[in-house]
Amino acid sequence: MKIFAIGLNYASHNEEMKSVFVSEEPVIFMKPDTALLKNGKPFFLPDFSNEIHYETEIVIKISRLGKNIAERFAHRYYQEITVGIDFTARDLQRRLKQQGLPWEIAKSFDNSAPVGNFISKDKFPDMQDIDFHLDINGKTVQKGNTAEMIFSVNKIIAYISKFFTLKIGDLIFTGTPAGIGPVAINDHIEGYIEDEKLLDFSIK
Ligand code: MG
Question: What's the gap in Å between 10 CA and the centre of ligand 1?
């Protein structure tokens, strides 16, 4: 299975990243299957970074094989969603960006993609109007609504499938809103879609 992630998909986050980069098309990167962290397993802080940031994101799971999917049919290619974290080694990413190099080691390391329990998208009348948030140690640190996405889920699916065949079980992290920040040892991480807690794990 493949894990795709979208960069810079919320204007509020782009502002906090001081990104002047404006794209007519989604920014895509990938994480390997070894990045997946699920079932509430703990995340162990890696020794290669002193600045691991959470990025809370809506994650969709592909439910049907597809290539060159038209935007108007894209909604048929996923059935379940959850909330996940796009863990980022911000110190490494900053250095690599400055050097104009690819970001993989900053974004795609082992366990850098925790995901919560998946729920049916049918619970939500409008995919582009879903609240989500992250609590750390019981305090809300980041919240967003999918209405704020620059590129909608259906646009993202159409775009990715031009280049990559989407297969059942592939995941797409759809970007983070403003409010990213660091995690520390013993933090308790809880991710919600609307009022439902789907993600729950600890930093070790
Ligand atoms: Mg992200």
Answer: 10
Q: How far is the CA of 118 from the centre of ligand 1 (A)?
A: 19
Paired tokens of 151: 């590129």
Query: Which CATH number goes with the domain that contains 142?
Result: 3.90.850.10
- Give me ligand 1 centre to Cα 177, in Å: 9
Residue 3 Cα to ligand 1 midpoint, Å, equals 12
The parent domain of residue 162 ranges over 3-202
Predicted confidence band at 114 (pLDDT cuts at 50, 70, 90)? very high
DSSP calls for 46-68: PTT-S-EEE-EEEEEEE-S-BSS
Nearest alpha carbon to residue 143 among 86, 196, 88, 191: 191
| pTM of the predicted model as reported, rounded to 2 decimal places | 0.96
Query: For residue range 55-101, what is the model confidence (pLDDT) as tens digits?
Result: 999 999 999 999 999 999 999 999 999 999 999 999 999 999 999 99
| Pairwise CA distance, residues 1 & 18, whole Å | 33
Q: Which of 152, 141, 138, 169 is nearest to 58 (CA)?
A: 152
How many domains is the chain built from?
1
Q: Taking ligand 1, which is a single-atom ion, which protein residues have CB atoms under 5 Å away?
A: 55, 86, 176
**C-alpha of residue 4 to centroid of ligand 1, in Å:** 10
CA of 154 to the centre of ligand 1 (A): 18
When pLDDT is cut at 50, 70 and 90, the band that residue 21 belongs to is low
